[in-house]
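To the wet lab folks,

You asked to see what we're planning to order before we commit. Fair enough. Below is the target structure as tokens, and below that is the sequence we designed to fit it. If anything looks off to you, flag it before the synthesis order goes out.
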């Protein structure tokens, strides 16, 4: 019985830590509106260019059912989240 409780406790601690790290990494990315305010000269007509290389091809990287990040197809820089 005690071994089972230890296993569950360790699972919750490490699983919770992984989820927290995932959320903190995702939340640290700017939203589209924040990116647009930060780089107004790179965002025109609802489309943004990469702040690192100036590339205009952005692809969507789906993280899960609700979280996505937008990445420059030229240099791989993560631009913003949605």
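Sequence we intend to order:
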């Amino acid at each position: 019985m005690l071994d089972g409780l230890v296993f569950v406790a360790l699972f919750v601690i490490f699983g919770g830590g992984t989820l927290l790290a995932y959320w903190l990494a995702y939340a640290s990315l700017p939203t589209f509106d924040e990116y647009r305010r930060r780089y107004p000269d790179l965002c025109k007509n609802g489309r943004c260019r990469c702040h690192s290389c100036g590339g205009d091809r952005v692809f969507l990287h789906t993280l899960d059912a609700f979280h996505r990040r937008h990445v420059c197809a030229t240099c791989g820089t993560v631009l913003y989240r949605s």
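Structural context that might help your review: The mean pLDDT is 85. The chain has two helices and five strands.

Thanks,
Computational group
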